[in-house]
Amino acid sequence: MALMDYMTTRKDELVGWIRKFSLFPYPFVTACCGMEFMAVSSTLYDTDRFGAALPRFTPRQSDLLMVVGTISHKEAPVLKKVYDQMCEPKWVMAFGACATSGGFYRNYGVLQGIDRVIPVDIYVPGCPPRPETVIDAIMMLQDRIAGDHHPILPAESRGREPAHGNKVFPIYPVVDGVPPSET
Amino acid sequence: MTRPAPLSPEAFQQELGARVERSWQSFGMAVLELRAENLLPTVNALRDKFDFTLFLDVTGVDYPERSPRFDLVYHFYSPRHNQRVRLKLAVAGQQPTVPTLTGLYGSARYMEREVHDMYGIGFEGNADLRPILLYEGFVGHPLRKDYPIEREQPMVPYRDA
């Protein structure tokens, strides 16, 4: 007989454990930080070890939006649209000084931090950030996902919002705006 | 094949005559200062007589305390002479206008749009002066010295912090 035929855990821990090791990033790369992103995602630093190596090339299939580089006011609508296209659960990383705060650009054209437009879960400082910083940020984000509440059942998601303030969309059928349990 | 002799400011002066107010050499490049009404004939002569067939750039300079307030700086390149030339002209007024170069160089369309964005200088004859680097609805001209450095004109409403 096998030593362990079953295990017990909490649902949030199990779901968090699954989600933290399957982060599919969508790199929204706009500037020189992209070079650093290439370094961190390729062999030497290898974010694959954290389950976060498979960049998706559509926001609809990804759960981690990495905003890598300067965002101008003209580009902000695009970023917002990309964010809105992502399915829950989703997380956002502001990669580098420019995405975090506008960096050293203080002028008519540059958005002073992407958190003015979309909610951000983790900020990575640096111009550009060292790969170690990015890996640290991914691990901190993973810790946070592991400790988070993960509403997946209808009863859980009602009236509760995740810490980053995103709206939770109901996954049960809604008839005339009323969930089935309330009819 | 022998290279044509380098063009000196005097050579330009000789050909262009009184259309050039002042000319001098700056870091190996001839600089010609002229008045706005002489722009078109001068550029025409530069293109046809000296083979300045490539329009490199046009940009503006804002001197808020000076009158006339703006400088326009044009650069042209002649592949035959392997030489560049710079034209400077002062333009006055809050909404100055100069003639367009689109009739001589197709590439002038975009570059003049950029100067129009940034400095609010009009180009008479350029039919398409829509914003090119800025966006529709942007008020003001950000590279003018009196544009406030903190003024933001976001396209997406900010989230409540």
What is the fold's blueprint, element by element?
The complex is a heterodimer of chains A (183) and B (161).
Chain A: H1 11-20, E1 25-29, H2 33-41, E2 64-68, H3 76-85, E3 91-95, H4 97-101, E4 122-124, H5 131-147, H6 154-157
Parallel strand pairs in A: 1-2, 2-3, 3-4
Helix pairs in contact in A: 1-5, 2-5
Chain B: H1 9-16, E1 20-26, E2 29-34, H2 39-50, E3 54-62, E4 70-78, E5 83-91, E6 97-99, H3 108-119, E7 122-124
Parallel strand pairs in B: 2-5, 6-7
Antiparallel strand pairs in B: 1-2, 3-4, 4-5
Describe the structure using short key phrases:
heterodimer; A: 183 residues; alpha/beta; Rossmann fold; four-stranded parallel beta sheet; 4 strands; B: 161 residues; Beta Polymerase, domain 2; five-stranded mixed beta sheet; two-stranded parallel sheet; 7 strands
The CATH superfamily of the domain at 9-99 in chain B is NADH:ubiquinone oxidoreductase Nqo5 subunit
| SS field, number of helical segments of chain A | 6
Spatial strand order of the main sheet of chain B: 1-2-5-4-3
Instruction: List low-confidence stretches of chain A.
Output: 160-175
- Spatial order of strands in the largest sheet of chain A: 1-2-3-4
End-to-end gap of chain A? 49 Å
Shape of chain B: elongated
- Tell me roughly what share of residues is in helical segments of chain B: 10-25%
* Chain-averaged pLDDT of chain B: 87
DSSP strand content of chain A: 5-15%
CATH hierarchy class name of the domain at 9-99 in chain B: Alpha Beta
Low-confidence blocks of residues of chain B = none
Number of helices of chain B: 3
By oligomeric state, this entry counts as: heterodimer
**Quick one: how many beta strands of chain A?**
4
Distance between the first and last residues' Cα of chain B: 69 Å
CATH domain fold name of the domain at 22-148 in chain A: Rossmann fold
